[in-house]
Write a structure and sequence with these properties.
The chain has 245 residues and is an alpha/beta fold. It has a domain of 168 residues: 3-Layer(aba) Sandwich (Rossmann fold). 34% of the residues lie in helices and 26% in strands. The protein contains eight helices and ten strands. The strands form two sheets. Strands 6-7-8-3-9-10 form a six-stranded mixed β-sheet, with helices on both faces. Strands 2-1-4-5 form a four-stranded antiparallel β-sheet, with helices on one face. Strand 4 and strand 5 form a beta hairpin. Helix 3 crosses helix 4. It is globular and about 50 Å long. It starts with a strand and ends with a helix.
Length: 245
């Protein structure tokens, strides 16, 4: 369902400064992997390891410099519009909501952009707000939401159109402790995998990654240093304790 082959990305800073040499940062370096349909895979690694860059490429938000990636058999660079139709995206620092609209109005708007039929959209919005603990904030403007409430709304939006693939970057980072616990319980119980959905999520918590995934993929300085089932995570812990990753 998700593939990457020799994927690379380099960011260049200071390129317009005639007096200094541009600084090049390799975010991804020859990354190759495959995730099957219905799998839940955790993406772990230190800050700056390339997690967000990888998820942004899969989300069609940035282009790779080398290699290729596909989601649902669609090339992320060649067919970005079609890829966006089948993915749901949840970010840790969500800024794309319309703050003067209510939570419900935001979901109605994005549901319309996803071409969800009107006869279905109302039911989906009501159920999503209830499911993610926002039923009492249905008519509250998003500008009055706390960071955790925005994170709940982001999750509701990401699943509103019933995507085949769910991509999440630190989905529980800004959430309150109660919701964070509920969220990872849903991951553990595979509630996000309904209808064979593939889930690929980034987290800084190794215990959460182990408990809530079928496999763990670890990046270090843009390269894959571990990709295996949680049962093999003892080797990963030893790697981390030695400072190899």
């Amino acid at each position: 369902m998700i593939t990457a082959e020799n994927l690379s990305k380099v960011f260049v800073a200071g390129g317009l400064n005639p007096f200094g040499k541009p600084a090049r940062t390799t975010a991804l370096d020859d990354v190759t992997f495959e995730i099957g349909s219905g799998e839940t895979v955790a993406l772990v690694g230190r800050n700056g390891s390339g997690k967000t860059t990888l998820l942004k490429i899969l989300s069609t938000l940035i282009l790779p410099d080398g290699g290729n990636a596909t989601v649902g058999g669609l090339d992320v660079a060649g067919s970005p519009r079609k890829v966006r139709e089948i993915i749901g995206v949840v970010n840790s620092d969500e800024r794309s909501f319309y703050w003067r609209l209510t939570g419900a109005e935001n979901l109605y708007l994005f549901g319309a952009l996803y071409d969800i039929p009107r006869r279905e959209l109302r039911g989906r919005v009501v159920e999503s707000l209830r499911r993610y603990g926002l039923a009492e904030q249905t008519n509250v403007q998003v500008q009055a939401y706390s960071a955790g409430m925005k994170q709940r709304l982001s999750l509701a939006r990401g699943l509103l159109h019933k995507p085949s693939v769910l991509l999440m970057d630190e989905p529980g980072r800004s959430a309150d402790p109660v919701f964070r616990e509920e969220f990872f319980e849903k991951l553990q119980n595979r509630e996000f995998n309904e209808d064979g959905r593939t889930v690929f999520f980034a987290t800084h918590s190794l215990p959460e990654a182990v408990d809530a995934s079928d496999r763990v993929l670890m990046l270090d300085r843009g390269r894959i240093v571990f990709f295996d089932r949680p049962g093999s995570v003892g080797a990963l812990k030893r790697m981390m304790s030695r400072g190899d990753a």
